[in-house]
From TrEMBL:
Residues 5-100 form the NIPSNAP domain. It comes from Pseudorhizobium halotolerans. This is NIPSNAP family protein. InterPro entries: Dimeric_a/b-barrel, NIPSNAP.
Amino acid sequence: MITCFIRYELDPFAKDAFADYARNWGEAIPRCGADLIGYFAPHEGSATTAYGIYNIESLAAYEAYRQRLAQDPLGQENYRFASRERFILREDRIFLKNVSLPHAPVVKP
């Protein structure tokens, strides 16, 4: 299992547009085969940095997933929405593997 971290640089005046974009991926990404952890928008600190995070089995599975996502009607509309509204100024992806598993149970004080 690998985790894809997408780092976005956003227009700070278009956070609502990014939230709509994120909710659309909340439907399309799982339907196309990735385990969406979530989209995270600015809250405190930076007004321009956001993240999208999901798990996928492998880079080969990622390639097949991207093809399905490109054919998905909501995925296509979301790509057009982002292109039209231009609220994403920059987007970077990195794939990481969780090497700290298994974790101990959470201790609640």
